[in-house]
Write a structure and sequence with these properties.
Blueprint: E1 7-8, H1 11-31, H2 34-57, E2 61-62, H3 64-74, H4 82-96, H5 110-121, H6 123-127, E3 160-161, H7 163-168, H8 177-182, E4 187-191, E5 194-198, H9 208-220, H10 226-246, H11 254-259, H12 263-270, H13 281-301, H14 308-333
Helix pairs in contact: 1-3, 1-9, 2-3, 2-4, 3-4, 3-5, 4-5, 5-14, 9-12, 10-12, 10-13, 13-14
Length: 334
């Protein structure tokens, strides 16, 4: 029996896909074509999973599932096993989206729901086997290889740290600001007599400048609410300054804290999720601020160097309440 795959067209989601293209291209250069393999597998898994539910619900597959697949792939390390990509993408669509009734009904960000699941279930693969990214002097870098390996072919023996992990580990030499902004983040540092290499974290956080350009594009096209971006980044900056002054051994300086790790990927493409974020203007400002504060606290004082993922999921839980509270006060003021 032949089944067609009806797709619900969503111009806003297509705009987001265009905004993500610079980060996708950069991920290929930094890590190799394995990045595109992970991305395509993630997108295909998301579409098929949603289609299985859409058949019984007699509805169409949304183009939002493509965005979910891309975002999920971009928050994965380049060494992630194939089966984990499939498990995480299927889990995110199933329990982050379709369990609530499909697009427009979900409380949680599906891409981060899937990542949270595999982050907790497979912590070693998600945090301890990251590889150095290509330098700009390595051109054509990953464009000429399935997996970019600047050191040796023994990937299983390679253990690296992201810049955020390296800072908290007490590294004496770290990438400079220009490296962090552009994405050229390779290096090494000595810790207790052991040499660790500073490499990339996840596929999508390699180049801050490309994320900013893509993010500004979707804000300009009104596919993302500027209040969410501004409130998150402004409060994140303020808290970064405060924490660095109080606990400098745990919280890096301002620009290092902003440009190392997926801050801009979260700010433009995760916090702004049109379904799980609040709809009212005042609630959006509060929502972005809450995620920034919680994310900084988790990142600084917990075992997780990056706590924005957990902060966004926590913010998702409070988004409906924020909208309800804002509307309640507006009604009572009339």
């Amino acid at each position: 029996m032949k089944h067609n795959l009806p797709v619900q067209k969503q111009p806003m989601m297509r705009t987001v896909i265009v905004g993500l293209l610079p980060a996708v291209i950069a991920s290929i250069y930094f890590y190799g074509w394995v990045s595109m393999g992970i991305l395509l597998l993630s997108v295909l898994t998301c579409i098929i999973t949603e289609w299985l539910f859409a058949r019984s619900m007699k509805c169409k597959v949304t183009e939002a599932s493509v965005v979910t697949g891309i975002l999920f792939a971009l928050v994965l390390p380049p060494t992630i096993p194939i089966y984990m990509v499939i498990i995480g993408a299927a889990f995110g669509i199933t329990f982050g989206k379709m369990a609530f009734g499909g697009f427009g009904c979900n409380v949680f960000n599906p891409a981060l729901t899937g990542r949270c699941f595999i982050y907790i279930t497979f912590p070693i693969h998600m945090t301890a086997r990251w590889v150095p990214a290509a330098n700009f002097s390595d051109f054509p870098g990953g464009f000429a290889a399935w997996r970019f390996l600047p050191l040796s072919g023994k990937l299983s023996a390679l253990t690296t740290a992201t810049p955020s992990h390296a800072y908290r580990a007490g590294a004496e030499k770290l990438p400079d600001l220009l490296q962090l902004v552009l994405g050229n983040i390779n290096g090494s540092f000595e810790k207790l007599g052991e040499t660790l290499f500073i490499g990339g974290g996840v596929l999508g956080e390699g180049s801050a400048v490309l994320l900013i350009l893509g993010g500004l594009y979707i804000v300009y096209k009104k596919a993302a609410k500027w209040r969410l971006v501004v409130s998150f980044l402004s409060v994140y900056t303020i808290v970064q300054i405060i924490l660095h002054s109080l606990v400098p051994e745990l919280s890096p300086p301002l620009f290092y804290g902003l440009f190392s790790g997926g801050v801009f990927l979260a700010a433009f493409f995760m916090v702004t999720d049109p379904v799980s974020a609040p709809k009212t203007s005042a609630a959006q400002l509060l929502y972005g601020s809450l995620i920034a504060v919680v994310g900084q606290i988790i990142k600084t004082f917990s075992l997780f160097a990056g706590g924005i993922m957990f902060a966004i999921l926590i913010g998702n839980m409070f988004a409906p309440l924020m909208d309800h509270t804002v509307r309640y006060f507006k009604r009572n003021q009339k």
